[in-house]
Prior knowledge:
The complex is a heterodimer of chains A (498) and B (405).
Chain A: H1 11-15, H2 17-27, E1 33-34, H3 37-40, E2 57-59, H4 64-77, E3 80-84, E4 100-104, E5 111-115, E6 120-123, H5 129-136, E7 141-142, H6 155-161, H7 168-171, H8 174-177, E8 178-184, E9 190-194, H9 205-209, E10 218-225, E11 227-228, E12 232-240, H10 243-255, E13 262-267, H11 268-278, E14 288-296, H12 298-314, E15 319-322, H13 326-337, H14 339-346, E16 349-352, E17 355-356, H15 362-376, E18 380-385, E19 390-397, H16 404-421, H17 440-443, H18 446-459, H19 477-481
Parallel strand pairs in A: 2-4, 3-4
Antiparallel strand pairs in A: 1-2, 5-6, 6-10, 7-11, 8-9, 8-10, 12-14, 12-15, 13-14, 13-18, 16-19, 17-19, 18-19
Helix pairs in contact in A: 10-12, 11-14, 15-16
Chain B: E1 4-6, H1 11-24, E2 28-31, E3 47-50, E4 57-61, E5 66-70, H2 75-84, E6 87-88, H3 109-114, H4 122-125, E7 132-139, E8 144-148, H5 160-164, E9 172-180, E10 182-183, E11 187-194, H6 198-209, E12 215-221, H7 223-226, E13 239-246, H8 248-261, E14 268-272, H9 273-284, E15 299-304, H10 309-317, E16 322-327, E17 332-337, H11 343-352, E18 356-362, H12 365-370, H13 379-392
Parallel strand pairs in B: 1-3, 2-3
Antiparallel strand pairs in B: 4-5, 5-9, 6-10, 7-8, 7-9, 11-13, 11-14, 12-13, 15-17, 15-18, 16-17
Helix pairs in contact in B: 10-11
Amino acid sequence: MSGLAMPRSDEKTLARRAEIVAALRGIVPGEGVVETVNEMRAFESDGLTAYRQLPLVVVLPETVEQVSHILKYCGEHGIKVVPRGSGTSLSGGALPLEDAVLLVMSRFNRILEIDYPNRVAVVQPGVTNLGITIAVQEDGFYYAPDPSSQIACSIGGNVAENSGGVHCLKYGLTANNVLGIEMAMMNGDVIRLGGKHLDAEGYDLLGIMTGSEGLLGVVTEVTVRLLKKPDMARALLIGFPSNEEAGQCVADIIAAGIIPGGMEMMDGPAIRAAEAFVHAGYPLDVEALLIVELDGCEAEIDHLIGVVEKIAIGNGSITCRISQSDEERLAFWAGRKAAFPAVGRISPDYYCMDGTIPRKQLPRVLAGMRQLSEQYGLRVANVFHAGDGNLHPLILYDANNPGELEKAEAFGADILRLCVKVGGVLTGEHGVGVEKRDLMPEMFNETDLDQQMRVKCAFDPEHLLNPGKVFPQLRRCAELGRMHIHQGKMPFPDIPRF
Amino acid sequence: MPVTVFTPTSSEDVLSAVHSALAEEAPLEIVGHGTKRGIGQAVQTAHTLNLSGLVGVTLYEPEELVLSAKAGTALAAIEQLLAEHRQELAFEPMDYGPLFGGAAGSGTIGGTLAANLSGPRRIRAGAARDHILGIHAVSGRGEAFKSGGRVVKNVTGYDLSKAMAGSWGTLAIVTDLTFKVLPAAEAETTLAIRGLTDDRAANAMAHAMGSSAEVSGAAHLPLLVAGSVAAGLLAGDAATLLRIEGVPPSVAFRVSRLKDLLKAAGAMQEIAGEESRRLWRDIRDCVPFSDEKDRAKPLWRVSMAPSDGHRMVDALRREAPVNTFYDWQGGLIWLMMEADPEAATLRSLIRRHGGGHATLIRATASQRAAIPVFEPQSASLAQLSARLKEQFDPKSILNPGRMGF
């Protein structure tokens, strides 16, 4: 895409390709090594399709031993490795490198154990997010994090990205729903972090691994928490004349002590695109639409629906519909869930952003976006996880118009800068990957980034695992390790002592 | 060399303290109120860095569910401020003070993260690690850095805030913390089932937790312990406790559902409101084993899969005299040994019963010197932990040895 610099390819590795392929065939027999250009095409990009690159070779191991041997071999020979799950990353986290082995975990697709007394499932990393819920739903259980790609995305990838979803306001992110992992490291070591017990021992390496975007280790097994499905859920569909009132309604719901199962917001352009696409019955005379879903026992929902309705009316809602059946509730959601393809219908291309802001900054950020929209001459529609401040602006553009993709990217970068400026962050759930890599200095200074890279050095001192992602500039671990001791200072000159 | 205590009042002070410690090659013991100072391998340093002067809530926005404070801020002060807005730290941080003979209500927000505190609600709401949003810290390299932010949804860079959870001050000195806060429940009721053996209690708790009653606390107090919480309220028989929290109509509905579900389990009683709160506070703070007469007895905190806990305890009882009670549906086991710590026996039984880990919370100085306080790790995991420590604190000047390295 637009001038993104990836680490320089290692000529020596490229020259040794045949030898590397042979070595990988020695580790993974049969069809587990893919090396022809035609077959490797399927792996050349992830969910961020504007970026494409053929890998050196693709390997699909089936056992933990194979993963460990591949990493050990690559580690010993200085060969880069890019791990990949289902390849649904929206930030280019699984983008191949020309001189790197692409390690695809999709054959790890078995559920190993379901343990209802402890309410956990032990699964291989290639199992899809939804696959876990499907395996336990007949018994009334589910796995809570539900990223919108849940039908395809793998649980290993969810750990790498700390995936969220609509329900994470109440039920937490991946980090809050994973109790243990097994992982292979670049030196071939296989270690277990946590397990079925609730507190992992020692340093919170599980916390570091979750959201580390495949730069620290390759997850080979995951132990997730299962939750009992709530008795029922009902939703309110509330329309407002402006984003300000909708935003205030969200704040008031939370201030009233209510944490809904889901709380989503759409702006005018997103509402109209969704309604034109799925005919969900959304009101078209509103500028902001809220979906508030309450789940739990009937007594609780009946009570809370009344409270939320009152808050909505108090904030000047134009329409407020309460779902009377599960069909109606799902109809409320149909438009929201189809928002991306709906926007895809009104524009040849769209670019999905993912910043998080303190909720109260929403009016300011939306106003800023309107201004940027005029400045760049590109339209933008917004869907918003309103409860937790996670914003998904969809920038509409046409890649066939020369320069428009670059313009969309610049627009997106400006939106993320604005998010950081108001106290938010660059990415809420899509990850940094390659997409937002060069924006990291907007949020972190050099010292902050150096300390993050030092964590990388503890796991992968040669920077062989997924290089070129997350960090704008890789520094060698030896250089990062150097210390500058401030000599000649009086000990504790200004500090009160007693 | 006499021990020097430094009490910084700003993060700049902390930074210069670390610079000086590096220049002098003189390690620092990092403390807040010192309520958990007895936990971990003993730290012997020339200097102590006392953070209790680094105080103040710097941001609290109830509608945004976020609170920031300096590390030395009293946890009790934060909890009181939150209570005024009907909010709380949902992970219910335990107060270790009374176990070591200290007053209740002490401890800092920095120590809360450093020890990754939690409480009975751990089974639903997680621990401090699940609620920390961002930090500012000074590493053992003498560099001030930040991680995370003030929003819940954030995957920008590695989560170094979580890395601080349970690191006992051995990686960096956290100076500022931002936590997610949540609304406090309007009402709570505890259902007590009386007279269950440990194994039947484990079944009842698993049954309750696997229902849609949304149980937010599941503990079992065997006969010997039941009388020592909530001023003797439960004396006379074992008590298996299930807590329901929420809006009043929901609590009433779910309690009746739970009673129905467990009606065959045994005799039941309901404990509501302030009595219920007091009961869970006592369980949270391990009050049954805080008595002065017991303070010389070794105390273990064991974490296992909830359904494995009672089996391990049953096997341990055949080997050594022990007093025990369970929280987290049986997954948190407090074990007070009547004589020796029996570390090797206990740890081997944990391995044999599905795995987990044991921390020697309270013991004499000589026991703490002889026994690994934290669960020994596999060679490759221990090496990784040591490498992580080195990346934050290469000269080992922050709480050296506290976690065994």
